[in-house]
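Thread: Newbie trying to understand structure tokens

Hi all, I'm a second-year student working on a class project, and my supervisor (Dr. K.) asked me to get a predicted structure for one chain before our next meeting. I've only ever worked with sequences, so writing a 3D structure as a token string is new to me. If someone could post the tokens and maybe explain what I'm looking at, I'd be very grateful. Here's the chain:
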Amino acid sequence: MELNKNNIRKIMIIIVVTLLLYFGLLNLDVVREYFGIFTKIMTPFIAGASLAFILNVPMRWIEKSIASLFARRKKAKKPVSKGLLRISSLLITLILFIGVIVAIVFLVVPELGRSITMIIDKYPAFSIRAQEAITDLTVKYPAIKTYIISYNINWDTIGQTILNFTKMAGGNVLSSTIGVATSIVGVIFNSIIAFVFAVNILLQKEKLGVQTKRLFYAFLPEQAADKTLYVCTLSSNTFARFLSGQGRESLILGSMFLLSMSIFKFPYALLISILIAVLALIPMFGAFIGCCFGVFFILIVDPVKALWFLVLFIILQQIEGNIIYPRVVGGSIGLPSIWVLVAVTVGGTLYGVVGMLVFIPMSSVIYVLIREIINKRLSEKMISEEKIGKQ
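---
Reply by user tm_fold:
Sure, no problem. This is what the structure looks like when written as tokens:
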């Protein structure tokens, strides 16, 4: 290799990176401590950037809608200014966003508290009714009694376990609330910084995009900068399509449950519908988690209606999975269902609910990039699709 200026610089970079990695491995505790400090400092900015990305999805649609509305007006002598368009669309987006949060807080939280209180109050009567129903069944059908006795089920222990779990959940919520209250100043401070940072990003997103491009092209080779920007654009579009599709699908599913449960007069219709709509943001498993909550709440009030709610859930889930989801979400992320399952499992195992939401579009981006590389290599080798089969 010729030792010119560029090669010497590359060698120096490799040596410096190797030394930093070596000393980092020798001092993992120090690296972890400084990384924790850095993460703590950057948390509000990361949260603000994430909030800006989420809000940009509806804001972009609102901005286009307002622009097209003004463009169709014949009386408009000149197009609306970009600054006014941006500010108005941002204000509408923030009003909708804050309105959804306020609605959830004032509708779901009090209802959830009343439901837990009612469950605790009604548990003794429910336990008696359940035991009487089981006794009647065993009298009418002696085979069931023999079957139950063979398993030696202690119903009092099971009921007490459920009651203890409910009380423990309430206690955990209370302790968590106290823990949050003790650090309320820090939370408010970080939230304000994140909100202001998100607003500034949304107001200046084109300018920030140009600055990012200038940065890439200034410090990277042109081909590497092109590839990096392509991956960033692909990731942004994929995440935006995923959030938009999942949001619309969750809203439709929650509305279906609210309408049907109200028609058939199920208890906790609003609470269960909102829970299902929110949890449906988690692909594949979210709606089923909401179903478990719904069955649990209705079971205490009316066990028969809990069974009918399960039937209703199966029917609506089939309609959603076979008709609504393919049309609303469809191939928005371009990821086969088997890899969606892998992404949900891996993301949920590593980072919980956030991991599920992030790993699906991220896996879609990786899937597209790998598919492009494979297609390019197959094209270079001049291997036809007839030989290996179409995707």
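A couple of things are worth pointing out once you decode it. The chain has a mean pLDDT of 76. Residues 216-329 form one domain. Feel free to ask follow-ups in this thread.
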